[in-house]
Amino acid sequence: MSAAWQSGWWTPARRIDSPNFGPRPAGTAITLAVVHSISLPPGQYGGDEIERLFTNRLDWAAHPYFGLIRGATVSAHFVIRRDGELLQFVSCDDRAWHAGQSCWQGRDNCNDWSIGIELEGLEGGPFETPQYEMLGGLLGGLCKAYPLADVAGHEHVAPGRKHDPGAGFDWQRGARLARRAGAVLRWPAGPGDPQP
């Protein structure tokens, strides 16, 4: 997939600017991609609720679940929809608010030095072939622009607190497609795999 970067924005993605971001600490190398899963309401796909959440426009009264996350100000760099459509909410040069309290290989505050990638899906549930294909291509593109070295799940950087993407995500498949796109990265073997 041929792509160009423009100030941290990847041109194949549909750009939707989120206000939920900040600067990375000066001199920080971006070496980690964190894979998440999200669906709003849980288990429902195809609507614009994720976009609304990441742009602070979600109607908290529209569904009972939304009351549980009322007031959340969150974002990720990318969302990959079930059909493989790629959305980008924050420039990769900036810090998105996706990992929260987190640690990877002894380094805290993963948001400072990671790219957040949300897959539209239910925690623990299966993901679609177009999502794996887009994830592989995206990681290939990221590796051309940033010194990525590792991929981890939210469940790996916040064990016990987060469980996504969960057992339904095929880590080996993701790694294989990323390698095909030129992304040579360290991956967990599976959900809950201990940190190296």
TrEMBL record:
**What Gene Ontology terms describe what this protein does at the molecular function level?**
metal ion binding; N-acetylmuramoyl-L-alanine amidase activity
**N-acetylmuramoyl-L-alanine amidase domain spans which residues?**
18-166
EC assignment: the record states: 3.5.1.28
Q: Does the record carry Cytoplasm as a key word?
A: yes
The UniProt entry's GO CC annotations, sorted and at most eight, read: cytoplasm
Q: Which family does it belong to?
A: Belongs to the N-acetylmuramoyl-L-alanine amidase 2 family.
Q: What is this protein called?
A: 1,6-anhydro-N-acetylmuramyl-L-alanine amidase AmpD
User: What is the source species?
Assistant: Aquincola agrisoli
Upper lineage is: Bacteria, Pseudomonadati, Pseudomonadota, Betaproteobacteria, Burkholderiales
Gene encoding it? ampD
